[in-house]
Amino acid sequence: MNDYLILTDNMADLPDEYYTKHDVDVVYLSYLMDGVNYNGENRQDVGEFYGKMRKGSMPVTSQINPSQAKEEFLKVLTKCRRILCIAFSSGLSGTYNSLAAAAEEIQQEHDDCEIIVIDSLCASLGQGLLVHKAVCMREKGCSFEETVKWVEENRLHVVHNFTVDDLFHLHRGGRVSKATAIMGSLINIKPMLHVDNEGHLIAVGKARGRKKSIQELESSMEKQIGSWREKNDIVFISHGDCLEDAKYLSELIREHLGIESFLINYVGPTIGAHSGPGTLALFYMGDVR
C-alpha cells in the first residue's frame, strides 16, 4: 500500500484508465449541458459532448465548492491519511481555493492526517503531466516530502502551448473581443495561447491557417524546451475532438526533436466548454513557459 495518496481534479484530463492503473483519486467538477448536469457519477461521452457543441449547445461549468471538497477529502482519508492534492490553476478557477480551505478545516479537526494542496498553475494535460511526474516519483519510492518539494519547485517548468480552431468560444469566455473573433474567422487567423506563471490563459501570437498554427506549436517547443530537451521522456497532447491534428503534431515533434513517447487524450468537457472543438494543446517540461 502507498505511504501517501495522490489526488487531483478532472481538469487534469488524464484518461480514466491512467487514474485506475496508477491509483490516483479524482475530484470532479460538474457542468450543465442541454438541461442535464454531468459530474463524476453522471458522465457524458466526450465525442457526444463536442458533437453537441458543434451543433450549438453551450455548456456551463461549475467549480468545486469547499463543502464538496471536504466531502471528497473525507472519502479519500479512509484509504490513506497522507494526501498530495494537485489542483487546477487558481488563475482559471476557484477550485484550488476550495480544496485548500477544505484541507485546512479537516486538519484542524483531525490531527492524524496530512493534506498538502498544491496550486498546479496548470491546465488540462499540463496539470496531467505534473500529476504524472508525481506518480512516477511515488512509484520510484520517493517520499511524500520529496514528491511535494519536486512538484512545488517544477510546476512552472510545465510548458503549455495552445491553439484553437474557433475564436467565438474564446470570445464567449471573455478572452477575445467580438470584433477580433469575427475578423479572425474571416481571414482564417488562429490564435496562439499559453498558460503564464500566474496560471492565466494568455494570447501570445497568431498564425494564418490551421496547419501553420500546428507547426507553430512544434517550433515554439524547440525554443522553450532548453535544458530539458534530453529529460523529456514523454510529451502530452490534448485535443478538442481533432485526433488527426494531434497525431500530426506528434509526428512533427518526433521528426524534429526525436521524442518517441506521447500521451494523447481529449480536452475534457469542463475545459472544452470554454475552448471549444478543434482545440489543440501541447505540454512538456521546459526552461520557461
Description:
By secondary structure, this protein is of the alpha/beta class. The protein folds into two domains: 5-155, Rossmann fold; 157-285, Hypothetical Protein Tm841, Chain: A,domain 3 (2-Layer Sandwich), CATH 3.30.1180.10. It is 42% helix and 24% strand. It has eleven helices and 13 strands. It has helices at 16-21, 46-54, 66-76, 95-109, 124-139, 144-154, 167-172, 178-186, 210-224, 243-257, 269-275, and strands at residues 5-9, 24-27, 30-33, 36-38, 60-62, 82-87, 114-119, 158-163, 189-195, 201-208, 235-239, 262-266, 280-285. Strands 10-9-8-13-11-12 form a six-stranded mixed sheet, with helices on both faces. It has a four-stranded parallel sheet with strand order 2-1-6-7, sandwiched between helices. Strands 4-3-5 form a three-stranded antiparallel sheet, with helices on one face. β9 (189-195) and β10 (201-208) form a beta hairpin. α5 packs antiparallel against α6 (144-154). The longest helix has 16 residues, at 124-139. The chain is globular and about 55 Å long.
Question: What is the topology, as strand order, of the major beta sheet?
Answer: 10-9-8-13-11-12
Largest pleated sheet: 6 strands, mixed
Number of strands: 13
| Low-confidence runs of at least 5 consecutive residues | none
What's the N-to-C terminus distance? 36 Å
CATH topology of the largest domain: Rossmann fold
Q: What is the CATH level 1 assignment of the largest domain? A: Alpha Beta
- Quickly give the structural class: alpha/beta
Number of helices: 11
The whole-number mean of residue pLDDT values reads 93
Radius of gyration: 19 Å
DSSP strand content: 15-25%
H and E order: EHEEEHEHEHEHHEHHEEHEHEHE
Tally of structural domains: 2
